[in-house]
Amino acid sequence: MSDMPERWSKASVYPDMWADPDEDPRNLDGVSPDGELATLQDYLRNYRLTLRLKCQGLNPEELARRSVPPSTMSLLGLVRHLAEVERDWRNWVAPGDPAPKLYGPGGDFDGAVAEQAVVDGAFADLAREQAAFDAVLADYPDMGARVGKDDIAVRELWVHMIEEYARHCGHADLLRECIDGRVGQ
């Protein structure tokens, strides 16, 4: 495995971190939010940003690289997958017919090809779906409220979305390290 990159980090204070604490955009003021809803929103915002950080500075080929064969997982595939997840969970709450899949069955990973238009589209889809998810849940500040046709608790929607991002940010850590050796929290 001579083509494996050496590990590196931009951080100088803690060499296993993505960035030094004073440069990490996920911890703007160091003060934790007040209340359950604000805490859940903060965690989700930080995980969403973590995914973007893991993709930052890579070209389409690197973003589409499947670093752990035979898996079809790539950073670009994760971006597309999480756009799909945002839409799926919004569909649980939104009235009427669910919005269709963005990429079709399996298309989130299989369609993650090394083309700039695909990359741009994936990040645009992700931003749009995140905003739509947030807009729907903004109507439900009560964490115990039951919503949607399945009567799911709003709290469960927030926690599930955080869980999705947390799990996939762990994948993104490994994928990024295989691409260029960059490590970090």
TrEMBL record:
It comes from the Bacteria. Gene3D superfamilies: dinb family like domain. Pfam families: MST. Residues 1-32 are annotated as: Disordered. Transmembrane segments: none annotated. InterPro entries: DinB/YfiT-like, MST-like. SUPFAM superfamilies: DinB/YfiT-like putative metalloenzymes (SSF109854). This is DinB family protein.
